[in-house]
Amino acid sequence: MLIFERSQAGRTNGVQLNNLDSNTADIPDNLRRKKRAILPEVSEMQAVRHYTGLSQKNFSIDTNFYPLGSCTMKYNPRGSNKLAMLPGFLARHPHAPESMSQGFLASMYDLQEILKDVTGMKEVSLTPMAGAQGEFAGVAMIRAYHDANNDDARTEIIVPDAAHGTNPATAVMCGYKVKEIPTMDNGDVDIEALKEAVGPQTAGIMLTNPSTVGVFERKIKEIAKIVHDAGGLLYYDGANLNAILGKVKPGDMGFDVIHMNLHKTFSTPHGGGGPGAGPVGVSERLIPFLPVPMVAKEGDNYRWLTEKDRPQTIGRLSAFAGNAGILMRAYIYAKMLGRDGMVRVSEFSTLNANYMMVKLKEAGFEMAYPERRATHEFILTLKKEAKETGAIAMDFAKRLLDYGHHAPTTYFPLLVPECFLIEPTETEDMATLDSFIEVMVKIREEAHTDAEMVKGAPYTMPVKRLDDVKAARELDLKWVAE
Amino acid sequence: MPFIPHTEEEIKSMLDAIGASSIEDLFDEIPAELRAEGLKIEPGMSELEISRLMNGRAAEDGTPGVFVGAGAYEHHIPAAVWEIATRGEYYSAYTPYQAEASQGTLQLLYEFQTMIANLTAMDVSNASLYDGASALAEAVLMAVRANRKSKSKRILIPRTVNPVYRQVAHAIVRNQGIVLEELDYDREGGHIDPASLPAEPGDFTALVIPQPNFFGVLEEVDALTNWAHSHGALVIGVVNPMAMAMLAPPGEWGSEGADIAVGDGQPLGAPLSSGGPYFGFMTCRQQHVRQMPGRIIGKTVDLDGKTGFSLTLQAREQHIRRSKATSNICTNQGLLTTAATIFMSIMGAEGLEQAAATSHANTNELSDKLAAQSGVSKVFNRPVFHESVLKFDKPVADIQGAMAEQNIVAGYDMAAEYPELAGCMMVCVTETKTSADIDNYVDNFKRISA
Amino acid sequence: MSNVPSDLKYTKSHEWVKDNGDGTVTVGITEHAQELLGDMVFVEVPEEGNEVSAGDDCAVVESVKAASDVYSPVSGEVTAGNEELADAPETINSDAFGNGWIFKIKLSDASELDGLMDAEAYTALVAEEA
Predict the structure, then answer these.
(1) ipTM passes above 0.90
(2) Which of residues 233-262 of B touch A (CB under 8 A)?
(3) How far apart, in Å, are the Cα atoms of B225 and each of A467, B288, B415?
(4) Where would you tag: which of A30, A359, B67, B216 has the fewest CB atoms within 10 A of its CB?
């Protein structure tokens, strides 16, 4: 039932009304709203009950194992949330003077410093509001760099075929053409293809390492040299930073610009699809182009860095300074981890992934890259199961829901057929991992004995499989009163 | 170990299963020369220690009296809003790709889309964008896709649009051959005077119309909309959603209504929080829905014919369309739309209307009282929503500094973005302030001016 | 193996071309292509009067899981887009070579037709991709 269907004309929430007779007589008639907007007319308790009820129809990290590859669904500490929502932080207006903002600015400055250390980059701007905006900032900086050198022949960005869809979409938004290069059977970038692809037209390359196929790109130094020798720059997509936190720094791999997904690696909430936070870090040569504002420290005093300090900046990407409250959560999380905790993130996420990979392999499942170590995630292909039983990866995914586990990422990367990209994260215990493996074995048995049943899953969710074709053909995007 | 559940025994049995002698072995594919030599950051803190640190910093920033807006507005938020929004089932869920296990978020977003579409009187809404500024940038890109008759990629943007929104739009669209052309405003009214618009403007793709505009002033939206449409251009409205409870919504502007409407949803339940996270919203006419960026939720049925909700029109998006996507945008601001949906449900249209009306009246009260002081005058003569630009004889920075000492954030200095408005400061008074608060502001102002 | 009518010409990107004999051609996507894409949910057809070159993307077919460009196999002026598809995109699934046509073009260079594949070559291409 929709909240609108609980609505009764004339019902109001007295306690939320101010009932003041506010004078609005100076607003001319032609600029006034004629008819009140249709919003719910429900009591506060009805609203609370309705949205509490809806929440119970969700899987979430707080309720279920959520091994979505590439998404790093780790525990979101409650402490981060509580402290980021302290009244002093929530009440701070973005235009409050610096003199009334030292606590906030100090936290942002510290976060910049922490991110510099863990990534090995020279400077960091926190402002991008999500990974895709961080990517945009990164590629825009690459463009600004070439433009500043009057090098306008560079019109292409190289992207591996296994890359996230945001990579090519971002390159196009920055006015570049996209050149795809293939991935080899062992998961590494095809170096020969890269050598052929680079040239005076190359603006840069966008890479994820560990890559989107869940393995570490071993020849990264060689790749960096090839691209740099051609005059291009290297962009690091930080989607998989969790795998190498404290172990390897993207700056040491030769990257010129990186973005981090704080909602992944630094455990800020995914919130049902955002907000994210996608800070960018750069090497020396891109510092002048970083998006503003940033925070500087002078003596004991913190202040904003703006266009005045950075005339070559690519500009602003948000109305203020990005998703500040999310940055605050990431900062608090980073402070709780500290020097040693950071390294343990990559160690234990890698341990969990390798354990699951080995156990699933033992159970007879096929891995996409069986000769490789898992990083913090790995790919399993259900090609064989699909062929033998007719139950495809999507059916396995839906059936997992019935057993209380969220499905891994399915059908990404596109180049592995019938794939699951599985990322357990470091915050899951061994028993949970074992339970997932048992369930996978059980579903495979079910697929062999009763494939139709598996293909009809899920059965225990609030709804069964939804008709996506109807949803797209007969668009119904809002409720209309009958 | 923070947030890691493994016992020594478990670690050992897991390593045995893998056939590795140490966790270190699992990193053996990484070339040794690349390995980091430890981090320089400080050791970790317990929750108690970090609580001490953060409580201290939050207290340092205090909770001053806020009389500034300029894109972020302090409104009352019912206590229930964030109590519910931060439930783990909303807070720690991912994008609803597995629809069957995400019906809570999906239905909520469908309700959100309905509320935002109704508030703006437009046909359809998406499930949110990052913030108002980036939503304007996306609206510009969308208008270029949607207005196929116009070949110029020329967008007219009044200087009365929030200057940072204009800067963000520029930063995002600059590499796609799109021209953002400014329209100057009327110095008396602080608005775009319809009579000043050229009779033959040449081909342009869209006109951006703010309501209220950055100065708080109300624009003549009907005349502006009709003018743009008569020249084959689309209209992009940039609106304050709280104001829409009181002011004519973009869907009703002129004879045909705006084509796209965007804005920042912050007034609908998001705390000031240093500028974010907020959320951008975007609505449009039905005919343009396939050009709209961002996630969209549709209603459908399941195998048994039962009503359910799912992400739809995904083929527009980057994960399928890659380099030909409508945008590179991937995420929305789910948590904030959750809060906004609960906020609008609890407040209702009447609650929004009252908050808007009181903010309006309070702002007039403060600007009238200030303008009655010597050395202070109102800059524009047209009606405003809940912000007002005033000119002061005394330097604005001095006023801001002295008021800060009284724990008051006094207003927004216009000089940096509008050199012609040097010496001017913009104030905003929402429904959170009483007449006593306003008098306190004025008294403090008198004292520091004396 | 899906149907490949012998009286049509084909492209590598799975469009079919019918020579109408009056200097115009009709273009659609093949039965094989619609099978790959799945249930159609939306089709964007080009506007009448548009000038296109061979290889230009000039229509989009969209299913739940994919959106795919339709490339013009020949150069010329668009004389019609199939407006019926707006309300019934599924026609491409049910009748790809008939009522599921997407646009018509007045040829500017009839010799371009000679460069297209015949049914036999296209059948071989599909077999090779499978």
Answers:
(1) yes
(2) 244-249, 252
(3) 39, 17, 30
(4) A30
